[in-house]
């Protein structure tokens, strides 16, 4: 049995004879020497990851103004920061969007601009108190003007992440990037072989107080991250670091098209090799890290699993989905992850960075629960009009016009002889038909590609479909395509107005 | 070189492309084609020497020919070499090198703009 102590390793770091390698190199070393010899040889293994971490933000302290103010609402370059704490503290979150620029600029950009030393416009308002009389404030400041700028990532270092693809027939834009229709591509995130938690999956050395590389500076693990779920191999970490010491090489704002902003965060953890077991776990390869490919085309919390896949397959450039070779894209940067593991290796080798024993172990048993919802999701069937009037495709458009006049609907689902949905006509189609010659029957003027809904779809999904396709009503059909109702954007807006 | 051939509705029913190819005996390597009842668009590669002849033939039959000479530009400062752009590009312009850096073969770019929406770091553009 090889056993080393933290003190022994730190002594070697100090005495300049520590043997530190990256997790990528470690896989080769263990392969060659075996875990026992590798544990004797190697003292520290460094890991690294560089990817989108929406769950990031920075606590800022602005100092007090004269006269002083209890900031109630705070905006930095037009991006709201949370200030429901003490008078001049605020938390700027990476995903908060600018009030004026929307998707183009968000909290992540404020954070990157701060690191780059750029000036930031601060706007704050308040209600005024005896101790804090000031009500509004506008000033311009940069990172050096702040007392503190402390990055806190409530959830970082995901052990691995779900892989995304899309089974529906349009491109969808997600936090996993653009997903092309009909399983046209696959996107993934995570550093595989270099992923910190995959290298110490039992949390033997990674715990509260572990020193880490964060954004180019020294930071610490302050606990398990939110949604920490080690039992399903989806462990996460909560991190802290000083933004003032960070570099834009390792912290970058990102924009995901039609999704929002996020922050790319570079993070690396050194793992002291205390025993053979750690040597073995740090020998993990891309092949050993297995995850699920999910269909993001299904707008549900429980997305269907298409297949299992490991990081070696993902990084080969394509994987097979339903018998088809499908190209893969990484959303995180392996090159940067490597750079981080190398940089951390240099710090340790140079005697600048020591390892320690966690002051508290992280929970190894925990899972992440879904939300408890106390109100039932309204479904299409709850608000659809059930007394829907349909028209036969062989009716004339005069008959259709009459029907629309007699009823208050502006949409008429069109059915075939056997009663199944084949199209839809609107008052607008009919007026067009009047203007043109040659179309006499409903089947000539109807729209054949009808957007439909199921009675048991959640209203939010129906609403989004109507929005995306810019239509104002959808027939509700059963599994045999019989029309059982109609749902309009008007009904939905009324419901949402009530829900507010 | 890459060219874009646009065919508008008034001539869409006619075999413009086939006729032009036969007439000029030019090889067109078609990489993308889109047709519906109102509009047609073809992206193809053609030998530089043959370009003039095929353009003349196509234009005389009512098609519009544009040279795609402003391929994608990648801002290396903004790019973090993630590789997100790789899987969405119909031209297979981007790939990883051995060190997991991004390399591009811009000759293959058909200027569709798909990668611009994909890039999380706004590093790509089709500026002229
Ligand atoms: S998606 Fe953007 S940042 Fe990522 S490799 Fe391509 S150009 Fe670079
Ligand atoms: S514009 Fe982008 S996605 Fe389209 S071909 Fe060029 S490089 Fe590929």
TrEMBL record, chain A:
GO biological process, one term: methionine biosynthetic process
Domain CBS intervals: 384-442, 446-500
Keyword annotations: Amino-acid biosynthesis, CBS domain, Methionine biosynthesis, Repeat
Keyword rRNA-binding: no
Keyword Amino-acid biosynthesis set for record: yes
Protein name: Uncharacterized conserved protein, DUF39 family
UniProtKB/TrEMBL annotation, chain B:
Record flagged with keyword Kinase: no
Tagged with keyword Electron transport: yes
Domain of life where this protein originates: Archaea
Family annotation (InterPro entries): 4Fe4S_Fe-S-bd, 4Fe4S_Fe_S_CS, ACT-like_dom_sf, Fe-S_Ferredoxin
All copies of domain 4Fe-4S ferredoxin-type, residue ranges: 69-99, 100-128
Coiled-coil boundaries: none
Keyword terms: 4Fe-4S, Electron transport, Iron, Iron-sulfur, Metal-binding, Repeat, Transport
One GO molecular-function entry: oxidoreductase activity
Name this protein carries in UniProt: 4Fe-4S dicluster domain-containing protein
Organism: Methanohalophilus euhalobius
């Amino acid at each position: 049995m090889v056993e080393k102590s933290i003190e022994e390793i730190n002594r070697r770091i100090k005495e300049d004879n520590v043997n530190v390698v990256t997790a990528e190199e470690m896989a080769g070393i263990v392969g060659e020497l075996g875990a026992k010899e590798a544990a004797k040889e190697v003292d520290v293994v460094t890991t690294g990851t560089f990817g989108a971490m929406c769950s990031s933000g920075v606590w800022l302290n602005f100092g007090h103004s004269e006269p002083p103010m209890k900031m109630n609402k705070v905006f930095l370059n037009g991006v709201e920061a949370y200030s429901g704490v003490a008078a001049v503290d605020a938390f700027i979150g990476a995903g908060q969007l600018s009030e004026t620029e929307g998707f183009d600029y968000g909290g992540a950009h404020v954070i990157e601009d701060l690191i780059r030393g750029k000036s930031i416009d601060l706007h704050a308002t308040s209600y005024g108190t005896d101790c804090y009389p000031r009500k509004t404030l506008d000033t311009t400041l940069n990172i050096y003007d702040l007392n503190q700028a402390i990055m806190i990532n409530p959830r970082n270092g995901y052990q691995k992440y779900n892989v995304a693809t899309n089974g529906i027939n349009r491109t969808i834009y997600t936090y996993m990037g653009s997903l092309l229709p009909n399983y046209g591509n696959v996107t993934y995130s995570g550093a595989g072989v270099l992923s910190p938690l995959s290298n110490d999956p039992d949390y033997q050395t990674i715990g509260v107080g572990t020193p880490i590389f964060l954004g180019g500076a020294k930071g610490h693990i302050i606990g398990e991250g939110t949604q920490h779920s080690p039992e399903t191999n989806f462990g996460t970490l909560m991190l802290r670091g000083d933004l003032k010491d960070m570099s834009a090489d390792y912290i970058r704002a990102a924009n995901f098209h039609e999704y929002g902003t996020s922050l790319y965060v570079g993070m690396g953890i050194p793992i002291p090799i205390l025993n053979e077991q750690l040597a073995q776990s740090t020998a993990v390869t891309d092949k050993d890290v297995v995850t699920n490919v999910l269909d993001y085309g299904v707008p549900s919390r429980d997305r269907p699993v298409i297949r299992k896949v490991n990081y070696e397959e993902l990084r080969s450039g394509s994987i097979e989905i339903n018998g088809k070779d499908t190209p893969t894209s990484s959303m995180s940067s392996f090159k940067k992850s490597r750079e981080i593991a190398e940089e951390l290796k240099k710090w340790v080798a140079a005697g600048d960075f020591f390892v320690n024993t966690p002051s508290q172990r992280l929970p190894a048993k925990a899972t992440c629960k879904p939300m408890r919802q106390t109100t039932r999701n309204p479904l299409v069937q709850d608000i659809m009009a059930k007394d829907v009037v349909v028209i036969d495709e062989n009716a004339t458009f005069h008959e259709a016009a009459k029907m629309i006049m007699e009823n208050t609907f502006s949409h008429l689902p069109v059915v075939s002889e056997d009663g199944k949905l084949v199209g839809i006509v609107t008052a607008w189609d009919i007026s067009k038909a009047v203007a043109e010659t040659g179309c006499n029957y409903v089947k000539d003027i109807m729209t054949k590609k009808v957007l439909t809904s199921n009675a048991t779809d959640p209203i939010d999904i129906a609403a989004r479909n109507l929005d995306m396709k810019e239509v104002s009503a959808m027939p509700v059909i059963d599994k045999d395509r019989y029309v059982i109702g109609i749902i309009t954007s008007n009904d939905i807006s009324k419901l949402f107005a009530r829900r507010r | 070189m890459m060219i874009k051939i646009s065919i508008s509705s008034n001539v869409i029913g006619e075999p413009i492309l086939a006729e032009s190819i036969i007439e000029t005996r030019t090889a067109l390597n078609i990489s993308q084609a889109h047709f519906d009842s109102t509009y047609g668009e073809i992206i193809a590669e053609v030998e530089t020497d043959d370009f003039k002849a095929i353009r003349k033939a196509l234009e005389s039959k009512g098609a519009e020919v544009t040279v795609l000479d402003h391929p994608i530009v990648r801002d290396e400062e903004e790019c973090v070499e993630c590789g997100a752009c790789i899987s969405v590009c119909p031209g297979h312009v981007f790939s990883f090198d051995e060190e997991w850096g991004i390399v591009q073969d811009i000759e293959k770019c058909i200027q569709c703009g798909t990668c611009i929406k994909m890039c999380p770091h706004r590093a790509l553009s089709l500026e002229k």
